[in-house]
Amino acid sequence: MAILLLALGLLGSELEHPSSVLLFWPAWLETGALALALTPIILTGGIDLSIGSTMALASVTLGQLWRHHDWPIGLAAVAAVLVGALAGAGNAVLVVAGVSSIIATLATLAFYAGLAMALSRGERIGGLPSEFTALSQDSVVISGGIGLPNQVWLLAAVFVVAYMFIHHTRFGRYLYAMGVNRTAARFAVLPVRRLEASIYIVCGAVAGLVAVFYTARSGAAIPHAGQGRELEAIACVVLGGTSVTGGYGGVVRTLIGVLVVAHLDIALQLVGSLAIQLPGMQSVWQPTAETRLVILGLMLVAVAIWNQRISADSGRAR
User: Fold this and answer.
1) In Å, how far from its chain's centre is CA 108?
2) Residue 141 exposed, middle or buried by CB count within 10 Å (0-12, 13-18, 19+)
3) Is residue 142 part of a domain?
4) Cα 111 from Cα 58, distance rounded (Å)
5) More confident residue, 39 or 287
6) Nearest-CA neighbor of 284 among 292, 273, 276?
7) Which residue would you say has higher pLDDT here, 142 or 155?
8) Is 60 exceeded by the pLDDT of residue 80?
9) pLDDT of res. 311
């Protein structure tokens, strides 16, 4: 993160206006909410790869209920959140039954994505009412005409709930215990299965809620909404310092990870601006969404290797 901040300091003059950076805010905040919901799962040593597909399914459900079944848009939005919770419940059933979380959620990733495509026939559902798309507008305007998007309140609400649950309840302590040694947690008669099911359901519900904001921001229900968001959310959690094997980390660390990913986006935007201005550079290299995912993947590999070395050093010290 220090390197990213240094790069921003050197290249910051290339930004024409702060609002060009703030264009990324809603996406960062939505990803941050997903990452916070994913943190309790990773603390137990689990994973949820289906949150992006859950977003797509929830978004399509919202659009279908409003367009083809004449549901009020508010009620359709509530249904989208419930669909997210049901998708999370599907993950919970598989994981509690003993299926590895990475296998279970990889399967549901494909299933939910396919279901979203089937329901929408691969088409966007646009024409959403203005009172709904207004959800994506700035709620608080600060100096210079720059505003804070409504996603700020989404992130704040998810953070407060997650922080209180993980750090101020006995169930939060159980999450860490499960991550350190699941077998010992069972022998200690901790409610492992119920707690595990709950965090997957809540994660799905948050994905559904994020889908509502994403749909309002996009102005349409999109069958590929959330594509790649699972990698971004996992990156935020892991880059923040939460151990992917469980037992160590927290939501404050996840917020740090969100800042790292956000600064990566800014840095790529600056590089893209420079490439446009330098003769011949635009044809040589221009940052794309795929570039961003590649860099995130490399960062995750680096963190995994670092964590492995730390674990090995700790083992030798014992």
Assistant:
1) 17
2) exposed
3) no
4) 13
5) 39
6) 276
7) 155
8) yes
9) 59
Give the residues across from 141 on adjacent strands. 147
Instruction: Give the count of domains, the chain.
Output: 1
CB-facing half-sphere around the CA of 253: CA atoms within 13 A:
20
d(CA 166, CA 40): 7
Q: Is 220 left (phi over 0), alpha (psi -120 to 50) or beta?
A: beta
SS3 148: strand
Contact between 163 and 152 under an 8 Å Cβ cutoff? The reply is no
CA dihedral 41, 250, 148, 18 (to 10 degrees): -110
Range of the domain at 57: 2-11+19-137+147-317
Token readout for 55 is 């977003």
Which DSSP category does 135 fall into? G
Which contacts of 264-267 are long-range, i.e. CB under 8 A and separated by 24 or more positions?
Answer: 264/4, 264/292, 264/295, 264/296, 265/24, 265/27, 265/28, 265/292, 266/4, 266/8, 266/21, 266/24, 267/4, 267/7, 267/8, 267/11
User: For residue 122, what pLDDT is reported?
Assistant: 85
* pLDDT exceeds 60 at position 277: no
Domain-located, residue 246: yes
Residue 188 confidence (pLDDT): 86
Q: What is the CATH number for 234? A: 1.10.3470
The one-letter amino acid code at 51 reads I
Tell me how far apart the alpha carbons of residues 257 and 305 are, in angstroms, rounded to a whole number: 17
Bridging pattern class, strands 138-141 and 147-149? antiparallel
Mean pLDDT for the stretch of residues 182-192? 88
* Domain contains 210: yes
Higher-confidence residue of 121 and 4: namely: 121
Residue 105 C-beta-side C-alpha neighbours within 13 Å? 26
157 within some domain: yes
- Contact indicator for 218, 63 with CB cutoff of 8 Å: no
